Amino acid sequence: MAEDSDWSLLDKHLFIEDVLLRSLNKQIKHLTVTGNTPMIYSLQPVIEEIERTAEDDRDFRTVRICRAILRAIDSRREDKYVAYRKGLGVVCNKEEGFGKDDFVVEFLGEVYPTWKWFEKQDGIRSLQKNNEDLAPEFYNINLERPKGDADGYDLVVVDAMHKANYASRICHSCRPNCEAKVTAVAGKYQIGIYSVCKIQYGEEITYDYNSVTESIKEYEASVCLCGSQVCRGGYLDLIGEGAFQEVLEECHGILDRHQLMIESCEVNSVSEEDYYDLGRAGLGSCLLGGLPAWLIAYSARLVRFINSERTKLPEEILKHNLEKKRKHFLHICLEEEESDAEVQAEGVYNQRLQNLAVTLDKVRYVMRCIFGDPKKAPPPLVRLSPKEVVSFLWKGEGSLVEELLQCMAPHVDDNVLNDLKSKIRDLDPSGSDDILGELKQSLLWLRDEILYLPCTYKCRHDGAADLIHLYAYTKYFFKIQGYQSVTSPPVYISPLDLGPKFSKNLGPGSHEYCKTYGENYCLGQLIFWQIQTNTEPDECLFRASRGCLSLPDIGSFYAKFQKRQRVYKPDTIRSMLERMEKLPQSSWPKEQIWSFSSSPKVFGSPMLDAILNNTVTDKEMVHWLKDRLTELQVIY
After folding, report:
1. Which of 58, 517, 622, 630 has the highest local Cβ count within 10 Å?
2. Contact call for residues 587 and 551 (beta carbons, < 8 A)
3. pLDDT value for 286
């Protein structure tokens, strides 16, 4: 905007929003649907047209600003002055226009339960081969049952891609003249578009999409072109990083979530406090009815975290926003920033509740497919008894010790191996009055027995000893009760869903997609309740569990193939210690020597023990490993 005009900043914003962008859209209107619509358009002919119109209307003030802009453009001929076209979505053709709070139109489309909607999205990504190119434009909106409803909050997805009215073509604006509201009509909920101010004949109808996404690519592509003076620059907010994630990452890591799940599974009942907290959050029979007690108890614990996060987030968001704005602005209104932080925190709160509702809907569907009645679904986690722990670690089929002996066999003398087996049988802790205490001592003995056996690049007995040390100091182990796998009936995906690029490759007609839910899908989705874009949350769970929740395989330290080498250096122990002390809820890196089961049936770790006992990681265990690090550094 020209600097030599006498217009205020507000006047300039209004000129851009109400005059410049409208004139731009009119100039390119004749190109719409021709296939030749330009994505950018030169500003000069637009300004010239505004100038001519202003001269005809004897609006000399606008004439002066136009001439000032044209002089500025002319003085910088090498610069390109262009605008991105926005286009007009829906324009008011009602001669008398709309008054404030008038009903404009109902939003119509196909209604999907959330589990089926996300099945369809998984199918689209599958047919697109998970290509990084963005999906086609979407026209869906959530129809949410209000939290104040007698049956509580819930939601469905209204998809206007195939069957719809013009409401789905209304554009976003950061300063809209309408809003989308859920209203009850004849006992049924519907989404209505209502005016928030007077709308004149010929004026574009807009509302604030006010949506969020977990996808960085989708967020970056959601550029807003509304041109209003309060434009946020995009019509999607990203909730997957930055200040929105601070409290989640600090207080709700994978071990924290497992603690909540373990508590819920072991209690397997719903308290009055649980129902009270769920009710305060607006969750009632519509969402919770028919679910097993352990799952309702887990939901209550998640709601308590969501409430706690809501109180902490404004401060984190405010700090983040201030740091960002101070790089570009000298004067910042703290009161406005605090208000914005509160609004953003409330948005995150509502999104968390929505994600919880979607997760429960997905899990309920899978449980219904498997058990008929979801209430029959057993708790997915069960604590091992002392005898079961002995079977898992010491003497059962496939136990830690049995696997160790099998791995050692090619690398040690038969006499040494047989002697070790004999001693292991003698130290069986099963008959002890203190089974777990005796088991720990037996494991520590085994650690010391193999620690100083000769190592090669094919076998690292010392690494195996360090791992046995971790198992010895792990107090609690849990069994995963996997449900059976189930494949859902097909959903149908049309070329329109896929977009032109992919529909050409796949051909005409609808495509069938049947989603298979693995035996640990429910556990994975419940642990990653805050994320809905994981096609296979059970696999994500096992990847995230490596090291912090599920300790490495003992076979990590023994090469099964002739060419494979086992490198175990001070850096390996140092990395392990750093993870345990500084990043206890992070998975261990794959590039190290460790290997992990792709689908462990039992898990437990000293880091999980610390979370369950609300303490730090066992100092005695860590001290021994630090001494080992010093010892190994001397050797290297």
Report:
1. 517
2. no
3. 94
DSSP per-residue letters across 365-400:
HHHHHHHSSGGGPPPSEEEPPHHHHHIIIIISTT-H
Q: Are 578 and 586 in contact (CB under 8 A)?
A: no
Per-residue tokens: 381 = 């986690």
Non-local CB neighbours of 218 within 8 Å, separated by 6+ positions: 134, 236
State how far Cα 127 lies from the chain centre.
22
Question: Could you tell me which residues come within 8 angstroms of residue 507 by beta carbon, excluding any fewer than 6 positions away?
Answer: none
Q: Which amino acid is at 96?
A: E
- Average pLDDT in the 617-633 region? 90
Domain regions of the chain by residue span: 9-84, 90-238, 244-378, 382-480+524-635
Q: What share of the chain is helix, strand, coil (3-state, %, to 5)?
A: 50, 15, 35
User: What SS3 class is residue 542?
Assistant: helix
- Residue-wise pLDDT for 600-614, tens only, equals 899 999 999 999 999
CB 294 within 8 A of CB 379: yes
What is the per-residue pLDDT across 70-91, written as a single tens digit (0 to 9) for each? 988 888 877 666 565 566 688 8
For residue 257 the two structure tokens come to 């979530």
In one-letter notation, the amino acid at residue 43 is L
User: Residue 338 has what pLDDT?
Assistant: 87
With both helix axes pointing from N to C terminus, report the angle between 43-56 and 60-74 in degrees, rounded to the nearest 10. Answer: 150
Distance CA 404, CA 436 (A): 20
- DSSP-assigned states of every residue in 106-124: E---EEEEHHHHHHHHHHH
Is the pLDDT at 50 greater than 90, yes or no? yes
Provide the 8-state DSSP code for 546. Answer: B
- Both structure tokens of 425: 């049988």
Confidence check: pLDDT of 247 > 90: no
**If one looks up domain 90-238 in CATH, what number appears?**
2.170.270.10
What's the burial of 266, exposed, middle or buried (CB within 10 Å: 0-12/13-18/19+)?
middle
Please report, for residues 113, 121, 461, the alpha-carbon distance to residue 497 in angstroms, rounded to integers and kept in the order given.
Answer: 18, 9, 55
Residues 6+ apart with CB under 8 A from 255: 548, 549, 584, 585, 607, 608, 611
**Structure letter (DSSP) for residue 39:** S
| Tokens describing residue 86 | 């926005």
Helices then strands, each counted (H, E), the chain: 24, 20
Tell me the C-alpha to C-alpha distance, in Å, between residue 126 and each of 21, 121, 218, 528, 598.
39, 9, 17, 21, 22
Structure tokens at 144: 């949410």
Q: Give the lowest-confidence range in 228-242, 268-282, 296-310, 594-608.
A: 228-242
Distance (Å, rounded) from C-alpha 302 to C-alpha 298?
6
pLDDT at residue 88 in the model? 65
- Calculate Rg over the CA atoms of the chain: 31
Cβ–Cβ under 8 Å, residues 97 and 200: yes
d(Cα 570, Cα 460) in Å, to the nearest integer?
Answer: 13
Three-state DSSP at 211 gives strand
**Closest by alpha carbon to 434, among 399, 467, 478, 390?**
390
pTM: 0.84
For residues 525, 528, 532 and 535, what is the CA-based torsion angle, rounded to 10 degrees? -60
| Eight-state DSSP code of residue 159 | E
Check if the beta carbon of residue 517 is closer than 8 Å to that of residue 486: yes
pLDDT band, residue 343 (cuts 50/70/90):
confident
Tell me how far apart the alpha carbons of residues 414 and 407 are, in angstroms, rounded to a whole number.
13
